Amino acid sequence: MDSVLTVKGLTGGYSPRRPVLHDLSFEVGAGEMVGLIGLNGAGKSTAIKHILGLMQPHAGEIRIGGHTLAEQPDTYRSSLAYVPESPLLFDELTVEEHLRLTGMAYNVQESLYEQRSESLLKEFYMAPKRGAFAAHLSKGMRQKVMIMNALLARPALYVIDEPFLGLDPLAIRSLLDKLVEVTKEGSAVFMSSHILATVESYCSRFIVLHQGVIVAQGTLQDVCRAAGMPEDRSAGVLEEAFYRLVTGKANGGGEGAHHHGTFG
Ligand SMILES: Nc1ncnc2c1ncn2[C@@H]1O[C@H](COP(=O)(O)OP(=O)(O)OP(=O)(O)O)[C@@H](O)[C@H]1O
């Protein structure tokens, strides 16, 4: 498996004296969807800001497609698309103008642009709003425009922060279907979410971040093992493993979880 995103020994945060992230190491490979899960304040958004290059690591390094941001800034940036938790759009541009702008920024060929933008407008039920100004869209529609922009660019790596908030059930389904499609085409998806049931069904690997430390990572089986749970393939097992890892307790009492990372 080719690694698209490689994070090695990342220590970082807002002040060098008080790091928020401690020695994080993980990879996201081509064709993989990896879920980043953790409580409020665990450090998920901070980790994402480091990956985007908005913050400098205190120690360690981050590579996309084998390069650090410092080595190849243009390649690094054009290899990734980011969907933030709260949509950031230009109020005075229309839906279609946002797509056009992204197409130009990512050098999407004209014929591919036409094809992709038309199908995205349909798949996200946004065709009737193609000419609407961003300022006149609903919150969920604004989020859909961010997602459509990322999908138009078809980067090697998608970094998606809590994508399901504010989306209606059809939009969530459209997004998940598209993410499955792009991973089949070889892209890598790194997604942070509190919706554990969805993360469990769609991601092949998980990273459990707790107080800035990776307390478990790997397949569902790896995470369950780190949580001291027997192998169990029933739905909802990720939530139980997560609960044990972050509280050190089993649901309804029981022995403590092991706070050791597994690297699968
Ligand atoms: N701009 C900032 N300046 C200083 N500290 C910050 C800043 N943003 C976040 N923090 C701190 O960094 C830690 C991690 O926050 P972060 O936003 O990464 O958490 P998160 O896992 O994304 O949480 P949530 O699930 O609530 O979005 C918290 O202790 C938070 O107070």
UniProtKB/TrEMBL annotation:
SUPFAM superfamilies associated with the record? P-loop containing nucleoside triphosphate hydrolases
Q: Which Pfam families match?
A: ABC_tran (PF00005)
Extract the InterPro entries matched here.
AAA+_ATPase, ABC_transporter-like_ATP-bd, ABC_Transporter_VariousFunc, P-loop_NTPase
State the Gene Ontology terms under molecular function: ATP binding; ATP hydrolysis activity
Keywords, in A-Z order: ATP-binding, Nucleotide-binding, Transport
Domain ABC transporter residues, every copy: 5-236
Q: Extract the PROSITE patterns matched here.
A: ABC_TRANSPORTER_2 (PS50893)
The name this protein goes by in its record: ABC-2 type transport system ATP-binding protein
Q: Which organism is it from?
A: Paenibacillus taihuensis
Q: What is the lineage of its organism?
A: Bacteria, Bacillati, Bacillota, Bacilli, Bacillales
